[in-house]
Amino acid sequence: MNETPQWLSPAEQHAWRNFVRLHQKLRARMERDLQAHAKLSGADFEILVALTDVPAGRLRFQDLGRAVDWEQSRLSHQIARMIKRGLVVREECAEDARRAFVVITPAGRKTIEAAAPHHVATVRRLVIDALSPDELATLARISNRILEQLDEAPP
């Protein structure tokens, strides 16, 4: 059965397109800023943050993939690039030879610790300072609602 699409109203289309444009511009600006100030890609930063969010600084490949919501092939290629730069290492899993861990190195930890203050200042300047406390709370509620819906919806 071929259903007629429920097209977006002008107000819905305006909101949606502005949201997409905001996401694209913000992501591009953050990527350029990370590259210029820390010599990190956004992908590097995302992986290093995920690893520093766990006490041991190590995650199984599949758990890291879930944490950053990436496909296995993208994650494997990114980790290979980061291994070459000395930011992470791969450790085999003693309990299961088919599995492996990604572990942040001392150099990776030093890199993220050096990048984080500037990154946070950029987030503050571009997003946080542009919003009132009420607007920030609204942004958090909206983001949480959409994330919950995405987590519940089938892929």
TrEMBL record:
<dbReference type="InterPro" id="IPR039422">
    <property type="entry name" value="MarR/SlyA-like"/>
</dbReference>
<protein>
    <submittedName>
        <fullName>MarR family transcriptional regulator</fullName>
    </submittedName>
</protein>
<dbReference type="Pfam" id="PF12802">
    <property type="entry name" value="MarR_2"/>
</dbReference>
<feature type="domain" description="HTH marR-type">
    <location>
        <begin position="12"/>
        <end position="148"/>
    </location>
</feature>
<dbReference type="InterPro" id="IPR036388">
    <property type="entry name" value="WH-like_DNA-bd_sf"/>
</dbReference>
<dbReference type="GO" id="GO:0003700">
    <property type="term" value="F:DNA-binding transcription factor activity"/>
</dbReference>
<dbReference type="GO" id="GO:0006950">
    <property type="term" value="P:response to stress"/>
</dbReference>
<dbReference type="InterPro" id="IPR036390">
    <property type="entry name" value="WH_DNA-bd_sf"/>
</dbReference>
<dbReference type="InterPro" id="IPR000835">
    <property type="entry name" value="HTH_MarR-typ"/>
</dbReference>
